[in-house]
Write a structure and sequence with these properties.
This protein has 215 residues and is an alpha/beta fold. The chain has one domain: Metallo-beta-lactamase, Chain A (4-Layer Sandwich). The chain is built from 7 helices and 14 strands. Strand 7 and strand 8 form a beta hairpin. The radius of gyration is 16 Å and the shape is globular.
């Protein structure tokens, strides 16, 4: 088994971090949150000669899931996640786009499998624990690789900020509870990729993120 590697591809006008996790030796991997720009995602997969086995979705917002149906058809692989509480959101991605006047190409999505707290997903010998972290979206999940001390937090926690909660299904107190009860206990040394912008370490956010004061 090789090292766990990550390639980040900012996609859509929202500059969402589509992430490809892959093994440095076997080149097996997964795509997390293909929100759009599917041609660019597939180009990078071809360039790196990656063997993508699944698509993982953290939550049902259009900038994270809007390209998943096209990518599923292009790669002929299943879509896994998020939690079923985002089912209605995923089934109405095109309506989301109309509501927010978004003109990029996206399609409604029904995942092959929803995830729940305690599930484990992975590829090769790399395993990720699944945590249900509602607040930004009702069905938001995060992925934690304990062996690598690394997590993908989607739009739960950012470098210096937290996920917005003013969208349909958002709940500020629920988001803070998810961060306090699920994210912070992963450990201060855990590094993470988030849905937008640069990543960070959980300890740095615990100490410096103004939104976490008092948690």
């Amino acid at each position: 088994m090789g090292k766990l590697q990550a390639a980040i591809i900012p996609v859509t006008p929202f500059q969402q971090n589509c992430t490809i996790f892959f093994d440095s030796e076997t080149l097996e991997g997964v795509v997390v949150d293909p929100g759009g720009d599917v041609e660019e995602i597939t180009r990078i997969i071809r360039e790196k000669a990656l063997k993508i086995g699944e698509i993982w979705i953290t939550h049902g917002h259009l900038d994270h899931a809007g390209g998943a149906q096209d990518l599923r058809e292009a790669l002929e692989v299943p879509v896994i996640g998020p939690h079923e509480d985002d089912r209605v959101m995923l089934e109405n991605l095109e309506m989301q786009a109309s509501r927010f006047n978004v003109t990029m190409r996206l399609r409604n999505l029904v995942p092959d499998r929803f995830l729940q707290e305690g599930d484990v997903v992975g590829f090769g010998e790399h395993r990720f624990e699944v945590y249900h972290c509602p607040g930004h979206a009702p069905g938001h999940v995060i992925f934690f690789n304990r062996a690598a001390g690394f997590a993908h937090l989607g739009d739960v926690l950012f470098n210096g900020s937290i996920g917005r909660t003013d969208l349909p299904g958002g709940n500020h107190q629920q988001l803070l509870s998810s961060i306090r009860d699920k994210v912070l206990p992963l450990g201060d040394e855990v590094g993470f990729i988030c849905g937008h912008g640069p990543g960070s370490r959980i300890g740095d956010e615990r100490r410096n993120n103004p939104f976490l004061v008092g948690l």
